[in-house]
Structure formats: C-alpha cells, structure tokens
C-alpha cells in the first residue's frame, strides 16, 4: 500500500568535508572550474519556462546583464569540455549555449544548461548545482553499486552533472504504462529491483518524478531501466519507508503492476538477483568502497535523532539487534551491505 510519507522539505545542505574533498580528488571527481554555482546566481529577473502545452515546468529562464553573457557562456562551454573530455576545448569549438534554466523547486536549486552543436543542431544538457555532501555520496554510491555509471565534477561549492536521459517516471505512468508493445512484467521486475537497491543503499524519496525510465528496444522486446536523478535525500531521513519507493503514492501504478503480474516467488527471485548484482559490484570495487565508507564515517550527513529512528526501524524490520549498535548512517549502510554478502553466500 502507498503511504503519505513525510519528507524533510528543508533538509540542510551539508558542506563538502576535507576528507571527502581528498576522496574526490583521488578518483578524478574534483576539478577547477571556470564558472561556479554562485556566478550563475548573478541575475535579478527571470521569466517562467513553459512546456510545449503551455504548462508551467517549475523552471525559470534567468535574464543576465548583457555585458556578462559572453563571458558566462564561454565559461560554461569550458565546464562542459571538462565534464565530457577532461577539458579538451576542441569538442566545444562548434557549440554554443542556447539556454540557461533555473529551478527553485528542491533543495539544491539547480541550473540546467542547454548546449547545441551549430553544425547539426544536436543538443545536450548538463547541470550546475550547489554542492551538497548528501548528493555527492548518493551519486558515488549509485556509480559504484548500481548498474548505472554517473559522470560529475565537484569544485568547492559547485557540482557539475551530466544529463541522465529518460522518460520522467510520472510522465511514464501517465502516457507509456499502457503501451501494448511494452511487457508489463518487465516493467514490474525493474521496479522491484529498483526498490530493493534503494532500500539497501538508503537512497530516499524516490517518488516517480525523481527518477526516469530508460526504454531500450531489444531484438524481440523492450528492456527497461529505472535511473535516479535526485540524490538529495541520500541516507538523511529516519523513517525506513522513505527508502522504499513502493510506499510512495506517486509510485502506485508501478506497485499495481507488480501485484497483478508478479507472484511472490518471482518477487523474491528479482530481489535476490539485485542483491547478487550489488555484491558482485562490491567485490569489484572493494577498495574504493572501503575508502568511501571511511570518509562517510567521519562526516555529518544526518541528525542523531534520524539515525536512532532508522536503526530502531531496521532492527525491527530485519529482526536483527545488530542495528541498535549503529551510531551513524555509515554504520547502517555498512551493516546492510555485510548482511547482503552473508545472504548471497548462503
């Protein structure tokens, strides 16, 4: 059943600590950028951005002083070159910045940049966001433990993120879920795996508008993959249901698919498949994950009250008193992964 789960709308922005900065530098996630998040805030007016049907998108188009636009656009092209080609400016010599969008919805208030190749009109997007340790940990864990790789860079108070293509989950449920060419069992299977992965890694607030569905034609069918696009609620909340997408009312169409097309045995089978995949990635990246765990163990990414609530909730959920010994979100995630390794070995 879907619940009306309360989420901390004003979760604090956690700064990037010195140990986390060192980790990012060690794994080529750190960069010295020509444009910062603060630079893009230098506007006084903005106009609402509407979609093709005239509906408000919750994004705005900032209006910058004319004398600053050229320098701003040149800086953004250099940032794009850093993200895509380690700073090789040849990839942007025929590109121009078409639009800068700003969103006041959410914690990080992101900027979305549209860049176009003038030779063939092919365009791409990337994002400039305020650096938040929660988000960085979330993206790094997603990169290491999920089937999805993420490309991002951090420079002090700024994160640069690659665009993740796909159909927004809420749009998919409204316009694609009943497509007769789509196998509903495959969609339900993917949601079960996504649900399991979020719960293990403590990725919270996965409502349908916080993830996208990627649809790939195969030789005899379509394959589906759910990809998270919002990591702001990575292991912050104390309510265990926040980390289970199945409990959000926005995801009810996916839950109904599972209830209609999956049996209890297939449900458990898909959970086990995802657990085995996570353990395989754990073993492949054990040194990097161990370093990330050590950094996370020194960092503040939640509150003592939330840690207490979550460890008690998970102790009851798993019937395992070991959770009551956890003193941080790092301890809880580590225990989740250790339990997973033991289960897969059984």
TrEMBL record:
It comes from the Bacteria. This is Uncharacterized protein.
